[in-house]
Design goal:
3 helices; elongated; 4 strands; alpha+beta; 4-stranded antiparallel sheet
């Protein structure tokens, strides 16, 4: 667990992005190209670029888009508790809701985590 007060917003956003990328690699055997994280008050918005695994892409590209969508939905459902726990552990704040969806055509996934309260982060140092 990270003491969030010791990190700036930018540092925490990078840490969460890296941790989520590691989780995808460990659990799905897939490393997304890029993960953007934005902490705003009591919400965290995350965009995962190239989130589809190789089998999902194969199904999508071979005309089985519905099956690919169903598999992605089940994968999101399976990894959601781990993502929720990761956020809670890093911020020491309860996650109230997790909203997830994936756009198969772009391979982009979006997540919104609604927190019980805004995280206490260290202010950015003045220049």
């Amino acid at each position: 667990m990270t003491e969030s007060r010791n990190l700036t917003r930018g540092q925490m956003e990078r840490k969460l992005s890296q941790d989520i990328q590691k989780l995808y690699r460990q659990e799905l055997g897939h490393q997304p190209q890029k993960i953007d994280c934005d902490i705003s008050n009591d919400r965290i918005c995350i965009v995962v670029e190239e989130s589809l695994t190789q089998p999902e892409n194969l199904l999508k590209n071979s005309g089985q888009k519905d099956l690919s969508r169903e598999i992605r939905s089940k994968l999101d459902e399976a990894i959601q508790p781990q993502l929720k726990q990761l956020i809670q552990n890093e911020l020491s704040i309860k996650v109230l809701d997790v909203l997830m969806d994936t756009e198969l055509d772009t391979g982009r996934s979006g997540m919104i985590f609604v927190l019980e309260s805004a995280p206490q982060l260290r202010p950015k140092a003045s220049s």
